[in-house]
Amino acid sequence: MTTTTSHSSAIVAKGLRKAYGDKTALDGIDLAVPTGSVFALLGPNGAGKTTAVKILSTLVTADAGELRVGGHDLATDPQAVRAAIGVTGQFSAVDGLITGEENMLLMADLHLLSRREGRRTAVELLERFDLVEAAKKPVSTYSGGMKRRLDLAMTLVGGPRIIFLDEPTTGLDPRSRHAMWGIIRELVSGGVTVFLTTQYLEEADELADRIAVLNNGRLAAEGSADELKRLVPGGHVRLRFTDPAAYQAAAVALREATLPRTPGFARAGGTPMDEALSLQIPSDGSQRELRSILDWLDSAGIEADELTVHTPDLDDVFFALTGTADVSDQPEEAVR
Ligand SMILES: Nc1ncnc2c1ncn2[C@@H]1O[C@H](COP(=O)(O)OP(=O)(O)O)[C@@H](O)[C@H]1O
Ligand SMILES: [Mg+2]
């Protein structure tokens, strides 16, 4: 078996820069995506995700940076890169006026497949993406999820080993999103390398081996979901009460308390109107901290009805790194 070191990374970028006029879209980013893995570029609108995908897939040239995709240098051998990859853009590339099948056959022609081979590939992919029934209908009648699946099916016609997916599930309903996740997982289990962009923390957490958080053209962090979660505080112990009086007393005691890690820091949550009377105490979830919190609760005579330990999630990470609390609050880009 012959493998070269260049094949251990499907995608490598060093010092990638791109500006549009005086607007810097990518401000020197470094990435390495191991072959056969899923890499998520996570960031809010305008972060530079599409720019990164377009550059790495040869559609736009970088201003600076050392870039290799599939072992080929993007600057000197873009043709070889093009032959190795498939790209599904943020906005659908399918032609709405013709049928799904016709779109697939067009793609087969572009890849110079023989007529027979093209038909065979089209049928196979339409089946795999659950589009057999829709195949003879114009794409303009498809749902968003169906268009996305067709888009991806078209991307796979040439059998690429590296695939770029720019926001593959933006605008999809939860069911279609889960279907897309299933398809992506299947691709990866077949050894394909997937580079995807997303605004959804859950999606990155669900699919990606490694996640890079992109904000304003810069990488704010890079790592596995677990590594990123460890970067930020945000873990806490939550106490729930059913008795409003007990809740009130605990809230007062907590405000006056000097807790081991962050004195006086307690957030009283919950409204007296419902049963969600809860208090949060910051904690890293370690045995030592939990013990001192429990000791303190005992000594203060506080008895919560429920005590739960929360570790930080990707939302906490995103907030800490980008200052954007909830990406879904951002204005939606026009989705076809
Ligand atoms: N063709 C272009 N001309 C000028 N500015 C652009 C162009 N494409 C992207 N930009 C700008 O570059 C930044 C990054 O855009 P983009 O890569 O599309 O971000 P994302 O995909 O993360 O939403 C944005 O500020 C955007 O307005
Ligand atoms: Mg984009």
From TrEMBL:
Gene Ontology terms, MF aspect: ATP binding
Presence of keyword Calcium: no
UniProt superkingdom: Bacteria
Keyword vocabulary terms for this entry: Antibiotic resistance, ATP-binding, Cell membrane, Membrane, Nucleotide-binding, Translocase, Transport
Protein's cellular compartments: Cell membrane
Entry membrane topology: Peripheral membrane protein
SUPFAM superfamilies per UniProt: P-loop containing nucleoside triphosphate hydrolases
Domain ABC transporter as annotated: residue spans: 11-241
Entry keyword Phosphoprotein: no
Family indicated by similarity: Belongs to the ABC transporter superfamily. Drug exporter-1 (DrugE1) (TC 3.A.1.105) family.
Name of the protein in question: ATP-binding cassette domain-containing protein
Organism: Streptomyces pratens
